[in-house]
Amino acid sequence: GQVVYSIAEETERGAPVGNVAKDLGIEAATLAARKFRMLSGSSKQYFTINASTGALSVNEPIDREQLCELKSACLLNYELVLENPLELYRMEFKVLDINDNSPIFPLSEYLIKMPEFLSPGTRFTLPNAQDLDEGTNSVQNYTLSSDEHFHLEMQTRGDGSKYPELVLKKTLDREQQATHRLVLTAKDGGDPPKSGNVSVIVTVLDTNDNAPEFEHSVYRASILENSPSGTLVVQVHATDLDEGPNGEIRYSFSNTTSADLQRMFSVHPHTGEVTVNGVLAVQRPLLELLVEARDNGAFGMSSTAKLLVEITDVNNHGPEITVTSLSSPIPEDAVPGTVIALLSILDKDPGENGKIACQIPDNLPFQLKPSLENYYSLVTSGFLDRELISEYNITITATDLGSPPITTQKTLCVQISDVNDNPPVFSADNLDVFVEENNPLGAFLYQVSASDRDTGENGRVSYTLRNSTVAGSPLASLLSVSLANGSIYAKRAFDFEQLKSFYFQVEAKDNGLPTLSAAITVNVYISDQNDNAPAILYPTSQNGSVAVEVVPRLADEDYLVTKVVADDEDNAQNAWLSYHLTYSSDSTLFRLSLHTGELRTTRSMRSTDFLKHKVVVVVQDHGDPPLSSTVTVGILLADTLPQVLPDFDDNGQPPPLLNATNIYLIASLACVSFVFTAFLLFFAVVRL
């Protein structure tokens, strides 16, 4: 997941650096499709990647000295982010120094005032040249122009740093030469080498022949980075063997100390106390200052000491959480370990104050895993169910290890998208539907309903009839079901006497992919209507004749004459039958059982009774409205069965009803009789 490149500073734009796809083992053709991105904390994009070939080239020349200042190693860190699947690679660029800077002295001219009575061997500190290059490209040696009174020597401080000193070889004589002009040259070790010059003007003075001397050549101090203005850093002290004004010392920062550091710190001119003067806005943990002690002689002498200030970090920066990539929504069938987001979590504090502990709530099906340095992956740690929870608000808590610790939180909203993992569900496995026979075509029978916990097309349910037959006929010829709402309709009228019940299945399907379904069994019970009159099975008449029963001439009381037997194809109360005697030629002689239909004598037969009798029996059901059938029974009183049965139509028949036809016949007969009588009267009158 990491590759390191080296590149020299000031490399021209477009120069090749390497091939990211080849070096990281990525197919170059997939870079554009996977939406590659180069991320860096730098404000400038120094490198670019060809999306077709993966070639890495310089986008903007790098000035190492501007980018890394005085750091010994200059590194640029980039992250390459790829999606589908989500991957992160780290690229590190080592910027190599070239000898593109000449040594530079802080001042264009350096003045030294020397008393004429100084003895040979007296030393004067010369300014150090600064070279922004590093290593052998930095300042390597100094040379001094030829002069019989002076020569150059290099000295080493306690911390190992070197500096040039001007050494007096021969006693000065102001009357012979009051000013000496020297040239100090600093050379670096580049190829070819570069150099820088500064004029050193030595003015010969009288008196004050001792320079102040510090107690230590190097002072060390440590302060907190959030120290307020006025905080004491260290107190330097120098002594001067001279007396009077020549021995009075004033402290200040040397001109070689950078202006930024002189604004951050101040030195008391009399006490030598170095204090904080402003905000310590630096990224370097160690600061170097030069403190100068100069006496108050007419021709003041000076010496310098190095002050090394170590800035101790305090925990004043909280962790910074940056969402590099976030996938939302995610399908609910995502397997554990699926990467949801890539996070960058940084703390600007160094050391323990910059170390971070990250966590998310334990009750979530997610896990935070460390990736590359300062990167974390948010992955699923369990199975998801959108029907239970459709959205998660994941709070990421980052706490540094400082004292006291600083905590930062960031909430990610992750939505769960639906997959078709729930079939339609009916409230029961089966149901009963009751319908009356003789129903109209298209009659509504029932509405089945199934629910689906999924959403959208995955939760849209449609209804169909499963293929089957009922009494030899296809189910589709009897019923239809609404595809949208599950309403069941009859396509023809049912007949209870032919079909009393049947069952079928309605299937509910969702519109997901793949389709899921469920079925419910519907039991249909057809209710009877009173649409059949009782059918008389016995006694029966043939060709319209009266059924005849023979009874002994002198039969006893309660003699069974006959039993009327009837049947009704209807059901329940529509088939409950009752028997009624609506006519009897002798009402005192016969009685009929209401429920059994038995016709019995009410008394013993007498010799005076008529030999022929007729009864009319009505069989009626209990429907609403009731239906009935009638049978006429002729009863012959005889001890033996005669060879020829008598005619029962003229005896014992109930009087004909006075219907419209009879009225017309009577009226016609009356009119004819009246006309005939009138004619006879008219004829008689004529004869007379």
TrEMBL record:
<dbReference type="Pfam" id="PF08266">
    <property type="entry name" value="Cadherin_2"/>
</dbReference>
<dbReference type="InterPro" id="IPR050174">
    <property type="entry name" value="Protocadherin/Cadherin-CA"/>
</dbReference>
<dbReference type="InterPro" id="IPR020894">
    <property type="entry name" value="Cadherin_CS"/>
</dbReference>
<dbReference type="GO" id="GO:0005886">
    <property type="term" value="C:plasma membrane"/>
</dbReference>
<keyword id="KW-0472">Membrane</keyword>
<dbReference type="GO" id="GO:0007156">
    <property type="term" value="P:homophilic cell adhesion via plasma membrane adhesion molecules"/>
</dbReference>
<keyword id="KW-0732">Signal</keyword>
<keyword id="KW-0130">Cell adhesion</keyword>
<dbReference type="InterPro" id="IPR015919">
    <property type="entry name" value="Cadherin-like_sf"/>
</dbReference>
<keyword id="KW-1133">Transmembrane helix</keyword>
<feature type="domain" description="Cadherin">
    <location>
        <begin position="6"/>
        <end position="105"/>
    </location>
</feature>
<keyword id="KW-0106">Calcium</keyword>
<dbReference type="Pfam" id="PF00028">
    <property type="entry name" value="Cadherin"/>
</dbReference>
<protein>
    <submittedName>
        <fullName>PCDC1 protein</fullName>
    </submittedName>
</protein>
<feature type="transmembrane region" description="Helical">
    <location>
        <begin position="663"/>
        <end position="686"/>
    </location>
</feature>
<feature type="domain" description="Cadherin">
    <location>
        <begin position="215"/>
        <end position="321"/>
    </location>
</feature>
<keyword id="KW-0325">Glycoprotein</keyword>
<feature type="domain" description="Cadherin">
    <location>
        <begin position="322"/>
        <end position="426"/>
    </location>
</feature>
<comment type="function">
    <text>Potential calcium-dependent cell-adhesion protein. May be involved in the establishment and maintenance of specific neuronal connections in the brain.</text>
</comment>
<dbReference type="InterPro" id="IPR002126">
    <property type="entry name" value="Cadherin-like_dom"/>
</dbReference>
<dbReference type="InterPro" id="IPR013164">
    <property type="entry name" value="Cadherin_N"/>
</dbReference>
<feature type="domain" description="Cadherin">
    <location>
        <begin position="561"/>
        <end position="648"/>
    </location>
</feature>
<feature type="domain" description="Cadherin">
    <location>
        <begin position="106"/>
        <end position="214"/>
    </location>
</feature>
<keyword id="KW-1003">Cell membrane</keyword>
<keyword id="KW-0677">Repeat</keyword>
<feature type="domain" description="Cadherin">
    <location>
        <begin position="427"/>
        <end position="536"/>
    </location>
</feature>
<keyword id="KW-0812">Transmembrane</keyword>
<dbReference type="GO" id="GO:0005509">
    <property type="term" value="F:calcium ion binding"/>
</dbReference>
